[in-house]
Structures are given as structure tokens and as C-alpha cells.
Amino acid sequence: MGEQAFYIAILSSAVIAGTPILYAALGELVTERAGVTNLGVEGMMLIGAVSGFMAAIVTGNSWIGFAAAMLAGGAMGLIHAVLTVSLRANQVVSGLALTLFGTGLSGYLGKSYIGIPVAEPFRGVSLPLLGDIPLLGPVLFRHDVLIYLSWAIVLALWFFLSRTRAGLNLQAIGENPGAADSLGIPVFSLRYFYVIVGGMLCGAGGAYLSLASAPSWLENMTAGRGWIAVALVIFALWKPGRALVGSYLFGGIDALGFHLQAAGVHVSHFFLQMLPYLFTIAVLTIVMARRGGRLAAPGSLGIPYDREQR
Amino acid sequence: MAMAVKLEKRLNPSAAMNVIVPLVSVLAAFVVGAIFLTLTDRDPLEVYTAMFKGALGSQYGLAETVVKAIPLMLCALGISAAFRMQLWNIGAEGQFYMGAFAASYLPLTYPQLPIWLMLPGMALLGCFGGGLWGLAPAMLRARWKVNEIITTLMFNYVAILWVDFLVYGPWKDPKGFNFPLTAKFPASAALPTFGDSRIHVGLIIAVVLAAVFWVVFEKSRWGFEIKVIGASEQAARYAGMNIRRNIYWVMLLSGAVCGLAGMAEVSGIVGRLQPNLSPGYGYTAIIVAWLSKLHPAAILLVSILFGALQVGGFFVQTMGVPASVAAMLQGAVLFFVVGGEFLTQYRFVSSRKEVA
ipTM of this predicted complex? Predict the structure, then answer.
């Protein structure tokens, strides 16, 4: 393989490897902007991956699978919303419960689906004209439809957050729910809505794994990507554009390990597999150290809203 | 006349609810589990009966339940130390693996050591390995406020891959037919067991440690300090408490106890280092710790319950039910406990109102 082809291969698979993380990170971003921490991303992704896969197998249609994954992720979001918004439960522990439950349930449901191939997984489509651009074409424009969809979501989310009234309301309920409430913004129902939307995006991220990048079901196939997504939102400072860049960075690390191994570099693949986890820790530390431990996190992130203690 | 129901914050959290909520939570989790079992064409009653019989219906099952409970007890105790300070150590799994790794170094390198040097040495190394694995995220947290939930979790994956590297690579037994296992430990490296069962001295260690934890965290000045920091870091700082130093010590202790669990497992049960040492003890222990409200005695009891769940899960595999049914039930328990805490803090008061 020529040197150029090697780099193109790495960059192109960085985009693929980064996409499930991107979907999940956008979901977490929306949830956290509404003032709710969600540590259940890993569990939501697994539930999304397994239910998307099962639906795609049963119906033979991967789009139905993708929709089912979003529904299942949304259902997980609903549970989180009931616990943290209505019952004012500890958001950290509720999120952990989502992850543990999601891991167990997905393992249980998916057991008989291990090793089955998907009939019509999402495959790369070369975009007319764009796909023929040298370098950029193969890296960015010969992917499956879900990748293009994720760009649309990033753009839409950026527009929504910075240019629309509803987006401002979303920021308000995350920054200062008390003030938002007194302005007549329905804090509780909006928090429900965004936690559910966040869950749907996490489910979509899981489905990307089981229906596009790896088309198959494996127990625990997310392998910590949900947690990486949680870390990524901090790295992204709760901004969609930065989440996109960060996701591909992580995807790049993931792809680099794989391609180095394929190129015959003599490092144990166990060490190469450690890279994304170590990279997450390093990136998080650098971000925190540079900002002196202070972040521009949504003002009331992690705090349940109690109207009577306004 | 109309009835209106209002929420009221309890002045004192209800003690009765502290017992009722976990019990009802466990029951409710089984109901949720039954729904999923039914949806997948299985008879929940049959599965639950088989789980119960498998875990508690025979002497062998009972002994296995205790065997699985020991690592849960130790890990949950370790986790509870950090949780008391609102330090979310969810890295017990990795600390367990690093403890197992460090402890294995001794019998693999110096197999001739006498038992009185070998076992204490392994225990010490186990604590050391797990403790350092807990200390690393503590330093990041204390210095730069790096979220310890994410770092401890990332370290889990690293630890498991590290042990995989060793047993597939440099530590692989040359006489082991290429299986990813280290050489068998010498007899001097095995924790003594009770009778013919696989129950080992780790049980005694866990019980003693629980007692020590109770004294330290409920009765000592340091325990009080940890509680204050957990309740309000700001108040603790005003009172002149050194928060950074306490983060180090608590995470070191937390990791060390989880590491000890790993040592006990390789020494008392497995007799060598191998992949998949833990079916997720470190994660299940989070549920155990929370369900027990971090109380050491409750941790011992709840660990037995969750050990039984684990054994029951293994047992129903013979019926074609995936063992992950246990993990699903455990996760569901945590949901209900978390939701139920609402009832310990608030109560519903009905007020009769005149309708004009």
C-alpha cells in the first residue's frame, strides 16, 4: 500500500470509528444542556445496538432497525427522566443503573442473535462529484448515509442552540431553571423531552455499531465508547462542532491502532487497544489543567430542580 | 370535598423506609425481569425457581454463593469508602484486576517462598496494585478536578487489557499448551479453605474488614471528617480539613481493598492468573454498596444475596437462559432503589380541601 493510500485509509476509518461516539456525544450534550447528567450512555448505546440489530434481522430492513434503536434509547431516557427529574434521584447513580441494566438486558436479549449477519447493513455511498475530489473524497464523501445524517444533526443542533428561541430555552433550563420557570418556561416537561431526545441519539450511536460499522451483535460491543462520549462532551465544552472534531480524533486513535497492527508494527495489540482509554484520560486531564479545573458547564448540571426550593 | 395529595420533605429520613425500599426494590426488579423473560418466551416462575434452587437449594450451591459473595463484599467495602466522600470510584473492576496481577507476581517469580511469607506478601502486593490504581485517578481529581467517574472507568479497560497482555504474552505458562494462563501457583500461595468447599479465608478477612470499616467510618475522627467532606466540601474547607490529602487516602484505601479482592480470588479460587477473572464483580459491587446504604454489615448480607443471583444466573444457563439474566436483575434493583430513595426523603400528605 502506498503511503498516501495508508493515510487515506486511516482518516476514512477515523470518521467511521468516530461516528458512534459522535451520535452518543450529541445525545449527552443535549441532555446535559438541559441540566441533567447522564452516565447511562454506555447502557443506552448497548440497548440501541441490540434492539436495532434485532429489529433489522426480524424485518430485514436496517432503517427500521435504526428507528427501533432510537425508540429503545428514548425509552431508556424516559426511565432516567422519571428518576432524575420527577423523583429527584441522584443522577450519578441513576446513570450507573442505566448502564448496568442496559449491559445486562442487552446481553440477555442478544444472546440468540450472536453470529447472525445483517441482510442489508448501511454501506458506503459515494456522493456525486464530492466523492471524486482527491484526498477529501475518499476520506469524507464515500461513507454510509448515517454519517451524512450525523453531520446534518450537528449543523441542526448548532443552529438550534445558537439561533432559535427554543434553543435558548433549552440553555435556560440547564443554566438557571428557577429563573426559566418564573419566565413561564416549562422546566419539567422540557427536561423530560431533552433527556429522551438524548437517549434516542445514544441509541442511534449504538445502532451505528451493530448496523453499519461492524454489522453484527456482540455482547458489550460498545466497549466503553459510551463513557468516551461522556468525556468527549466535557472536551467539547458542550458545543456540537467541537464534539464532531473530538469524535473523529477519538476515532482516529481507534483506527490508528488497528492500521498500525495491519501494517505489521511490532506492538502488542493489547497496548494498541488501550490507546483510546488512555487518550481519553490524557485529553480530559489536559482540558481540565488548562482551565484550572473550572469549566463552562451548564450552571445547574447535575442538580435536580425542586420548585419549592427556588 | 376533594382530596389533594401534596409532597412534603421529611425532616428526618425515615428509618423504616431504609429497610422497606431495598426489599421492595428487589421484588420489583424481579417483576421487571419476569416481564422480559415472558417477552422472550420463558416461564419466569420456572426460571426463578431454578435460580433459587441452584443458588440456595444445595450445599454446593450455598457454598458457591458464598464464594461469589466474597469478592463482592471486599469490592463493595472498598467502593463504600470512596462513596462516603462522594468520590465516585467505579473502578473497582480494574483495581480488582491490578490487585490480582500484583499478587500473582510473587508466586510466579518466587514459588519457593514459605507460606507465612507468601500469603502476606501476596496480600500486600494485591493491596498495593489496587491501591495505586485507585490513587492515579485520585491525583488527577485532586489536582485538576478531572472527573473521577470517567477516569476510574477508563482505567478498568486498561487494567483488563494489561492482564490479558500478560497471560497471552510474557506470563503465559510455557507448558500450558498455548492456553492464555499463567503457571499454576504453588500450594503455599493458596488461601486456606473451609472443609471440602471452595469457601476460603477471604470470607473472614471481609468480615473483619467490615468491622474495622464500621469503627473507622462511624466512630473515628477521620471517619467524621470524610463524612463532612462528602456532605459539603465547602464546609469542610472552612473547618480547616485537608481535602486533597483525604482524596488521596480514601482512594488509596478504596483501591487497596478492591485489590485485595483480586488477590483473594487468584489465591483462594483460581490458583493462577487468567483472563476473565471477574464476571463484573467490580460493577455489581457498586449496586451492593448503594443498596446497603454504605453500611458495612448490610454490605456483607447484600453481597450474599447478589452472590446467589450470580450463581443462579450461571445455573439457569443449562436451561438455555443467558447468564446475563442476573446482570439484568441487578441493574433493575438499582433503578428501584434509586427511585425509592424519594420515599425516604419525601412523603405524600393528603389534605382535604373545601371546594368552593
Answer: 0.90
